[in-house]
Design brief:
Length: 352
């Protein structure tokens, strides 16, 4: 065999190793969709619904009998609700799109301090009619979700203010009710409507054209969120260099859980990625799996709140390394999915 034919054979073997996996059947994608929706999307929305209902109940208890113990209970339920939200935050299509529910649950990033301005006006108004269901729907979307609750619960003077001003408590419980209502509706609508769209992706006037189109929607929510984490949750707070970091740009700096958010995001995306185990070529699947593992390990190496870590040289560098790892992971995921014949198309963040 001459040199040219040897090179050709090697090249052919290389491309065949991917081509064998490059075009999964529509049945393969249907199985991926079914498993992702039933083992990932719906259970995580169920967790969000349950956690937000507990938050609603604990904030009501706090306002009925304000005490440090009751405040601590509400803070604990806030964390559980935020945990649940961060684990399903990547799903950006379907019921979450209706009535700007994602922004209602979490208005972020808040580049112009809309939450602070509008929440301040609302609290100062002492107008209970604004909390009626019809009027509250017309209140700024920035004060209807978890960041507004965070501002109320994590103030140093939170307990004293809630004791002194019943209206502040009324605002807190109204926002908690809104979060619970949205979360419960999301779970219910995925059960009653969206699951059926994946069961029969080709139905007349359905949400998708076919099973591949449905898989594409899910894959976008596996890949695009890595850009959000990289660019908004990390790059923007890091600034241009150490010493120019802006820790108040971190997602949840008041509750000091910004790193926890990122860890949950990554773990959630990793779990979703595992659904591609029988679709991607083994070497590509294992390469990406190792990157996920290394990324989670790097996150766990930061043992102080990110809000503090980025203000030290060592912590800043560790966070920058995480930023770079996410970029590498995002690129390989995009390349791998594209090689399967899936075209993600328009990026919802284009133009940001």
């Amino acid at each position: 065999m001459n040199r040219t034919s040897t090179i050709s054979s090697i090249f052919l073997a290389c491309i065949l190793s991917f081509v064998c996996h490059a075009a999964p059947s529509e049945a393969d994608w249907k199985n991926f969709n079914h498993a992702t929706v039933n083992s990932f999307v719906i259970p995580f929305y169920q967790s969000l619904s349950a956690a937000s209902q507990a938050l609603q109940q604990s904030t009501q208890g706090l306002c009925q009998s304000p005490s440090q113990e009751a405040l601590d209970n509400s803070i604990g339920d806030f964390h559980k609700t935020m945990d649940a939200w961060q684990s399903i935050q990547n799903i950006t299509f379907g019921p979450i799109e209706f009535s700007m529910r994602s922004h209602s649950l979490q208005f972020w990033p808040d580049k112009k301090n809309h939450i602070g301005k509008h929440l301040g006006v609302l609290l100062a108004s002492d107008d209970k009619t604004l909390l009626n269901e019809d009027k509250f729907q017309r209140v700024s979307i920035s004060v209807k979700g978890l960041p507004a609750i965070e501002r109320i619960l994590f103030k140093q003077s939170a307990l004293n203010e809630l004791k002194a001003n019943k209206f502040h408590c009324d605002v807190l419980t109204t926002i908690s009710q809104n979060v619970s209502t949205i979360s419960t509706s999301l779970h219910s609508e995925w059960l009653k409507h969206m699951r059926g769209q994946f069961a029969d992706a080709k139905q007349l006037d359905g949400y998708f054209e076919d099973d591949i189109d449905a898989a594409t929607a899910l894959l976008k929510t596996m890949i695009e969120p890595l850009e959000v984490i990289r660019d908004l949750k990390l790059k923007r707070p890091l600034g241009s260099a150490f010493g120019k970091e802006k820790y108040k740009r971190l997602e949840s700096w008041r509750s000091q859980r910004s790193l926890r958010n990122i860890e949950l995001n990554i773990l959630s995306l990793q779990l979703m990625f595992e659904g591609l185990a029988n679709i991607l070529p083994p070497e590509r699947y294992h390469s990406i799996s190792h990157q996920y593992t290394a990324l989670v390990d790097a996150i766990k190496q930061i043992n102080t709140p990110l809000e503090n870590a980025v203000r030290t040289a060592e912590g800043y560098q560790a966070t920058l390394d995480i930023y770079k790892k996410i970029g590498t992971l995002h690129k390989e995921l995009e390349t791998s999915v594209s090689a399967l014949g899936i075209h993600l198309g328009f990026n919802s963040r284009d133009g940001d």
